[in-house]
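Hi everyone, sorry if this is the wrong subforum. Our group has a chain we'd like a structural model of before ordering constructs, and none of us has done structure prediction before. Sequence below.
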Amino acid sequence: MTTIAANLQAVRNRIERAAQSAGRDPSAIALIAVSKTWPAACIAEAYACGQGAFGESYAQEALGKIMQLGDLPLAWHFIGPIQSNKTRAIAGHFQWVHSVARAKIAERLNDARPAGLPPLNVCIQVNVSGEAGKSGVQPGEQLALARAIAALPRLKLRGLMAVPEPTPDTRLQRQRFALLRELKDGLGAMGLALDTLSMGMSDDLESAILEGATMVRVGTAIFGQRQKN
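Answer:
Right subforum, don't worry. Here is the predicted structure as C-alpha cells:
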C-alpha cells in the first residue's frame, strides 16, 4: 500500500470514529483532500484510492493541475484567499469556493461564472478566532454578506467555513467550531437554509466533526508535510 493510500485510509478511519462518537453518520462528512503545492501525480494517486474532491489555494497552480487531470471526474474546491484578478479563473474551473469574505468578490465570481455551468457553490469564511490579518468576516457580519450572495443568480450559498488559529487545546477547538455552527444556525433562523459547515483540518478534524462539520479539509495527514510553493 502506498503512503497516500495508507494515509487516506487512516484519515477515513479518524472521520468514522469521530462521527460515531458524535452519533453521526460518517457518510454525512465529506473529505476534501488539500492538494495545494502537491503535483498532479499525487492527486491522481489519491483519486485511484477513491478520493474525488480536492482543495486548492493558489489559482494559477491549480489551473495547471486541473488541465492535466481533465480526464478524471474530480471536484475542485477553492479554499484560499481570493484575489480580484483571479475570480474569472476560479469561477470557470471550480465547483466550490469556501473562502468568500467580501461582497465585491462574490459579485465578481457571479459575473464570471459561465452560463453553461451550474451555479458555483460558495461558503462564507468567518474569522472565528479573531486573528489580526486572517481572512474572513467577523462574527456578526455574516448575515449581510449571506443576503448579498443569496441574491446572486450564478452563486449558490451553501454554508460557512473557518480556519481557526491552531491550538492543541481541544476545548478551545470545539468552542470555535461551535461558534461557526451557531452562526450557521442563526442564518437558518433568518430564512437562509444552509447545509454546509466546512471546518476541521489534519490536527483538529475530530473536534470539528463533534461540532457538526459536514466537510473537513485535510492536507498534511494525507500527502505529508507541505512542499514549498
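For your construct planning: The chain has a mean pLDDT of 95. The chain has one domain: 3-223.
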